[in-house]
Design a protein that fits this description.
Layout lengths: L11 H14 L8 H8 L3 H13 L5 E4 L3 E4 L1 H23 L5 H11 L5 H10 L25 E2 L7 E8 L4 H9 L7 E8 L3 E6 L6 E3 L1 H5 L1 E5 L3
Antiparallel strand pairs: 1-2, 3-8, 4-5, 4-8, 5-6, 6-7
């Protein structure tokens, strides 16, 4: 296994770009446009172009970039991105399970810490937690070797008809939405019944054995990923 690079504050911006490319590229590792990256990171398109050119021309290129064709991670870039994702999700799990942080607060805290922990600290966290495979939001935690299970779940917004499902994961992108979902009992592992699911009529679900309808915005519904229930 190639040696892993220890991050410092100068690499934080680079790490964020690599994570964004990994996320936006999806399981197919599609090429990502500069426009999509700019929107995801909240920066100017010109800044994105400048950073991608630097990453592509570095002594150890972290991306493969062609103007007007978008960007993909190189092997080294993907390795680093998965390392940071592992840091992030282990920290989230530690904060949630050991330090009793509310689930809606762990993401922001992990964003600050993920770039700077040592390999030894990472290993100690993993051992303390029993080498978890998923984080509190239901997302897969990459292994030390840089392998990560790809999700086979679908967003609630893509479920075409009613039925009973199990919540596989919830997005960690917005603390306010997470707080509302938690208050409604929407969490990974919970059973969810789809009552109404159309952009025109809105999204309505029931949780567990409850008959109470929970209304969801399209944005919130898109944050919930489901797998079929086996019960």
């Amino acid at each position: 296994m190639p040696p892993r690079r220890q991050a410092n504050r100068n690499s934080e911006s680079v790490d964020n770009y690599l994570k964004a490319i990994l996320s936006l590229g999806g399981v197919e590792h599609r090429r990502v446009t500069s426009t999509a990256l700019a929107g995801h990171l909240g920066v100017a398109p010109a800044s994105v172009t400048n950073m991608l050119q630097k990453l592509a021309s570095a002594p150890t290129p972290m991306v493969e970039y062609e103007r007007h064709r978008g960007v993909q991670l190189s092997a080294d870039g993907k390795r680093r991105a998965l390392e940071i994702v592992r840091h992030h999700r282990l920290i989230e799990t530690f904060l949630y399970e050991v330090l009793d942080y509310p689930i809606e607060e762990v993401h922001e805290e992990a964003e600050r810490l993920e770039h700077f922990i040592s390999e030894r600290f990472e290993e100690r966290i993993a051992a303390k937690l029993g080498h978890p495979r998923i984080d509190p939001h239901g997302h897969s935690i990459p292994t030390m070797e840089g392998e990560m299970t790809e999700p086979n779940s679908v967003p609630l917004t893509e479920v075409l008809q009613g039925g009973t499902f199990v919540i596989d994961s919830v997005s960690d992108r917005d603390a306010h939405t997470l707080r509302e979902l938690k208050a409604s009992g929407i969490r990974p592992g919970a059973q969810l019944r789809v009552r109404k699911n159309t952009p025109a009529e809105g999204y309505s679900v029931s949780i567990g054995r409850s008959s109470r309808a929970v209304g969801l915005s399209r944005e919130a519904a898109g944050d919930i990923r489901l797998v079929p229930s086996t019960k």
